[in-house]
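> run fold L-iditol 2-dehydrogenase
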Amino acid sequence: MKAAFYIEPGQIEIREVSLPPLEKGDWLIKVMASGVCATDAKTYLRGHPFIKPPAVLGHEVAGVVVAAPVGINNKDGPQEGDRVVVAPYIPCGRCYWCSNEQPTQCTALFATSIEPGGFAEYVRVPANTGGRALYRLPDDLDYAEASLTEPVACALHGIEASRIKAGQTVLVIGDGPMGILLARLAKVFGARVFLSGMLPHRLKIAAQGLDGIFDACHEEVDLRPYTCGRGADVVLIAVGVQEAISYGVRNVRRGGIVNFFAGLPKGTTFPLDLEQVHYGEVTFMGTFGFTPGQFARALEFIASRQIYLADLITAHYSLMETEQALKDTLACNGLKSLILPWGGEV
Ligand SMILES: [Zn+2]
Ligand SMILES: [Zn+2]
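> ok
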């Protein structure tokens, strides 16, 4: 099969390799759509502490089961021919963090990862997932939208952990795919939602269905006029830029919540006025990943059209064009890019 290998920062090579060898209990998935995530693009640009090259990037996969375990162990599980979306990892359920209802911190999370990675024609889903990484798709949901289940699940984790309630005012900082997904989900949860960004082509799409947009290049991001001078109940920060983070921290109300949602590399620091934390009782928190329950519900949100995604998918690429897809993601061209290893209609 073909796979797009990340060789070193700034270099992708398409290689012909053998299918991932299957062990007893493994699944093999033919990848029909694979989302390009900011993490993939940043890894391509400057490397990643946990992803050592050569490696195949991509973790947002939807496809068809082409090999499934037979017998009693997989009686109700996904079978050959099933259309599925793949959770890129599954918590073990046994470690300290799993036992304390924090499965996103599970120490064994990446022991269940797909192999070799989503930018390939096929991926192996290991037996130790017990089929829990595979979710069947309803007939009327295409692979392209289904491949967005993982980012929607991450957004859902961010929204739920930030305890967003109906009627609250939420400020999302960032007009990338994750910022827009967070904003749309916060609307589904009944909040009034404002979003701040810097790119007109993205703000135009983001504005659909939200309560207000700030073009941070041309206006001050200030929620006080909309909240009787208080500021936002919850601020979700979906970019890693210091200046943008400062808009967020400045706009939270006393007693509110700031969620550092975007991935931030080790060593990232930010000056905080601790008065805001102590007397102001502002909660600063972060969220990463998703729980299996959130993944399942993210798929429901998409399948039932409670969240609209079609306008976020702005480009399709072949596997051969993976490097271009990563470059376009880094350049903030469009919004969400998908790799379609088998091309055609999805
Ligand atoms: Zn992702
Ligand atoms: Zn665990």
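Residues 279 and 323 are 49 Å apart (CA to CA).
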